[in-house]
Predict the structure.
Amino acid sequence: YKRVTVKSLVDMKRSNEKISMLTAYDYTMAKIVDGAGVDVILVGDSASNVMAGHETTLPITLDQMIYHASSVIRAIDRALVVVDLPFGSYQSDPKEALRSAIRIMKESGAHSVKLEGGKEIKESIKRILHAGIPVMGHLGLTPQSIYKFGTYTVRAKEEEEAERLIEDAKMLERIGCFAIVLEKIPASLAKKVAESVSIPIIGIGAGPNVDGQVLVLHDMLGMTHEFNPRFLRRYLNLYEDMTNAMKQYVADVKSVDFPNEEEQY
Ligand code: KIV
Ligand code: NA
């Protein structure tokens, strides 16, 4: 495999090839995602919800993110790996942000980091970029600010927030981010952003007129089933399939169908 790099992503935008991105948090799943040809693997702080069962992304720690990221990195032959800086690891000041990013790069072997926000974290992003660490931006619905928003509904429907988002996207490009995630904003606005910058825009709930798409792995596989946003396409119904497999196992153990003659020594 030819490895995906931050440069190949920009080339993909230029040549109009859409970028595929999924999350992964562990070795076994990351191996499958990478082998399937997904371009970018995000070790998202959605691990806080999906892996740890928290209601928000706020509780996950930098140490926990590094654990997930290092597990993913050991599985990868091709994909570019992006790791979320978790809540509380970069907001205090640029030096703290850089220290956190360095820890992720050194201790997990990841290829890049992602931070939520625009101009309010500009200096932190610049500091990380100056250290040679590629940064992916994240605008629109930024789940680490859920208590500021109050809900997980669509962002930037009003002119003022939309204008600010476009300005933030241009700023992130200007200071050197290699891509930006746009989460849950009107498709027309996402299209406008993708046309306003030359770095790739990866959407989640941002419509088709962007440069790539990202979904949470466990959501698109149908392993989670309480989460039903409009943007989510389920490619499998693993919640049901796995439940059935486990029920069959229980029945087989109870009936001593398992193990059979060949399944013993
Ligand atoms: O943590 C995450 O999974 C994310 C994606 C939804 C973009 O940030
Ligand atoms: Na995230």
